[in-house]
Amino acid sequence: MPIITGAKVVVTCPGRNFVTLKIETDQGIYGLGDATLNGRELAVASYLQDHVIPCLVGRDAHRIEDIWQFLYRGAYWRRGPVTMSAIAAVDTALWDIKAKIAGLPLYQLLGGASRQGVMVYGHANGADIDATIDSARDYQQQGYRAIRLQSGVPGLASAYGVSKDKYFYEPADGDLPRENQWSTERYLRSVPELFERARGVLGNDVHLLHDAHHRLSPIEAGRLGRDLEPYRPFWLEDPTPAENQAGFRIIRQHTTTPIAVGEVFNSIWDCKQLIEEQLIDYIRTTVVHAGGITHLRRIADFAALHDVRTGCHGATDLSPVCMGAALHFDLSVPNFGVQEYMRHTPETDAVFPHAYSFADGYLHPGEEPGIGVDIDEAAAAKYPYRRAYLPVNRLEDGTMFNW
Ligand code: CS2
Ligand code: MG
Predict the structure, then answer these.
(1) Does pTM top 0.70 for this prediction?
(2) Domain boundaries, given as residue ranges, for the chain
(3) pLDDT tens for each residue of 30-63
(4) Residue 144 annotated to the active site
(5) Which CATH architecture has domain 4-108?
(6) Which of 78, 109, 273, 380 shows its CA 20 to 30 Å from the CA of 387?
(7) What is the DSSP letter of 150?
(8) How far is ligand 1, taken at its centre, from the CA of residue 119, in Å?
(9) Residues near 390 by Cβ (< 8 Å), separated by ≥ 6?
């Protein structure tokens, strides 16, 4: 059995911060886990370095479930994004080790492939509707079968998901939180026009998605969902903050537009009511923030009982280590829906060489043993941590709001 001999936390910033856990064993085989929590990276790095790693040394790396339970129950202070990201990193690294020792790509240990590839969605965005549709046509020409549309809002200086760069979207960009201004009324007027014009240009054979990014009330979300129904969106994401899971009953009363929620969730308990009352159609939890492969499989199986499919988060602030692990999960999970795919920059890809590849609108994790992602520690060392925050939002009257 492979004994854990040590572990290290690698913090690097090739354009944005990433936190990676590397667990080493007495068989010379190591595993990687993503531990990146955008805007709070050092909290997870310390949780791992100062509290988790001392407990790992000497343990049997094959005992993934036992170590998961030890870290979850043994923390006493259960759940939360920091704790569950740390547990996720350990879990992912141990699955990486197990698969490497077995000489198999991780998906083979999760039940084998359930599909030939993982359908992904790209991020079309622009300062206005015309620019957003141009961006969407670019993604369609690249072969994407699913495209998210995020456009600037007339009268607002900024809106969620609109990137300064053509392809790479990174929201955490200030060494103190940048203050944006928001108007739900302006936003609600602009999205139906975006979708009407996009459908007219892109046609009906491409899935179109949209992220409301926690900014509506349930009744506003019901109205937007109903306004978008003629354009058949694949999903409306994060329509309203999801602490109040019962609030989604109001959305369901007003629209058949599919709902996707969960990228900020970190355990099955955050989404239990949403799933069992079928208040959502896609669960967005992902490997790095929801306790790793082990817990994500539990969430997916619970979702499958209630006709809810997966739609894992895959933003640039989730490292290629998370993307690689997620793709093995996606390839195998029976109730797969779609995988988000915000491409990383060339600098990031150089720090994290990986086996996954894109073709014809699908990603595939590759056939390398393990998760098929590595870290070049010499390259990582070239990019020291740089504090960065996600923006905050205020309404036009100055009221603090949701970003
Ligand atoms: C977004 C993310 O990808 C998404 O759906 O909600 O870009 C999110 O804003 C970032 O991951 C926050 O760090
Ligand atoms: Mg989102």
Answers:
(1) yes
(2) 4-108, 111-366
(3) 999 999 999 999 999 999 999 999 999 999 999 9
(4) no
(5) 2-Layer Sandwich (3.30)
(6) 78
(7) E
(8) 19
(9) 38, 39, 171, 172, 177, 403
